Amino acid sequence: MGSFIQNEILGMAWLERLIGSLLTLCGLDTDSKIGGSVLFFIYDTIKIMLLLGVLILIISYIQSYFPPERSKKLLGRFNGLGARIIAALLGTVTPFCSCSSIPLFIGFTSAGLPLGVTFSFLISSPMVDLGSLVLLMSIFGWKVAVVYVVLGLVIAVAGGTLIEKLHLEDQVQEYIRNAKAIDIPQEELRFSDRLKYAWGEVLSTAKKVFPYVLIGVGIGAVIHNWIPEEWVITALGGDNPFGVIIATICGIPMYADIFGTIPIAEALLGKGALLGVVLSFMMGVTTLSLPSMIMLKKAVKAKLLGIFIAICTVGIIIVGYAFNALQFLLI
Question: Per its UniProt record, what InterPro entries does this chain match (predicted)?
Fold first, then answer.
C-alpha cells in the first residue's frame, strides 16, 4: 500500500506510462534523448501543476484561518523558544516563496513581536511549507520529505534563537520599528468563502509559478537526458567534498520556489548527485534567492542581513552534509 501511494498517487507513475504510450503512438521513441526529454518535460510539468493545484487548495483553505492579524495575536501569546517554534510552524502554512513572506515579516516586526520570532517565521516560510512535504514525498519518498522538513524547522528555530540572543533590534530599519500596528477585527468566514478564497489562491499562485515550473522542468529535462552522468558525479557526487557548498552557492542567485526546483533536483539525483547536494541546492534557491535578499535589505540593515544570510548558509550546508551521510538510510 505504501509503495502504491508513493509511486502511483504521489509519483503519478500511471501518468508517465500514459504519456509515454501516447508519444510512442505518435512515432516518438521515448528511449532516445529527444523522446526522453519530451516525455520528462510533459510528465513533470503536468504532475507538478496537478499536485500544485491540490496542495494550494488545501493549504490556502487552512491559511484562511490564519490571516496576518490573527497570526500576530497567536504569536503574541507565546514567549521564548515556544514562540519561535510556533512561528516556524506557522511558516509552513503561509506563502510559498521568500518574496511573499517578507511583507508578513515586516508586519510582524512592526507589531512588536520579538526579532527572533519573526526571523524564525521568515526562514521557515519558503523553506518548509506543507507543499514541499508532499512534493518531496512524490519524488524522494516519505523519509527524505519528513527529515527535510524537520531539519528545515530546526534551522528556522535555531536561526531565530541566535538572532534574538545577539540583540539586533537596532538593525531593523527605523520606519518598521516606529510603525504602529493596527488591530483589524477579523470576521468569521463561511465554508463557501474559505473555499472561494482557496480557489482564488490556486489560480493566482499557479499563474505566478507556472513560468518557473516550465524553466525548472526544462533544465531538468536537459540534465536528465543530455548531460553526461560522469559530469554530474564529478561535480556533485561523493568524490567531491565541496559539492554541498557548490550547490548552495549556485542556488542563491536564482529566483524560484519549491515547485520550480524539484524537477532540477530530481534530474540531478538521477544522474548521480548526492542527496544532500540536491537538497542544499533547493534550500539555497528557496531561502536565499538574490531578489529576496534585495527586498529584505529594505527592511533590515546590512549587519543583520549579513548575519541572516550567514546563519541560513551555514545551516543549509550542515543539513546538506547530514543528508549525504544519511543517504544510505533514506533512499
Answer: DUF318, UPF0718_permease
pLDDT higher than 50, residue 184: no
Query: Per DSSP, which regions of 125-240 are E strands?
Result: none
Q: Which three cell numbers stand for residue 278?
A: 540536491
Global pTM exceeds 0.90: no
Relative orientation angle of helices 115-127 and 142-165, to the nearest 10 degrees: 160
Q: Which of these, 79, 74, 88, lies nearest to 126 by C-alpha position?
A: 88
CA pair distance 123, 163, nearest whole angstrom: 12
Cβ-Cβ contacts under 8 Å for 286 (sequence gap 6 or more) = 97, 98, 126, 127, 256, 257, 258, 261
Are the beta carbons of 52 and 205 closer than 8 angstroms? yes
540593515: which residue's cell? 301
DSSP string, 262-275: HHHHHHHHHTT--H
Residue 142 to residue 147: CA distance in whole angstroms: 8
Instruction: Give yes or no for a contact between 287 and 126, defined as CB atoms under 8 angstroms apart.
Output: yes
- Cell 548552495 locates to 248
Determine the Cα–Cα distance for residues 270 and 316; give it in Å rounded to an integer: 21
Which tens digits make up the pLDDT trace of 289-317?
A: 776 787 788 888 999 999 999 998 999 99
Cα distance between residue 66 and residue 193, in whole Å = 14
Residues 189 and 195: beta-carbon distance below 8 Å: no
Assess contact for 271 and 285: CB atoms under 8 A: no
Under a CB-based contact definition with an 8 Å cutoff, are residues 153 and 124 in contact? Answer: yes
Calpha distance 248→243 (Å, rounded): 9
Residue among 212, 84, 14 at smallest CA distance from 5: 14
Tens of pLDDT, residues 69-128: 677 777 777 778 888 998 888 888 765 555 567 777 877 887 778 889 989 988 888 777
Report pLDDT digits (tens) over 212-228: 788 888 888 888 778 87
Q: Where are the domains of the chain?
A: 2-179+188-330
User: What gap in Å lies between CA 144 and CA 274, rounded to an integer?
Assistant: 13
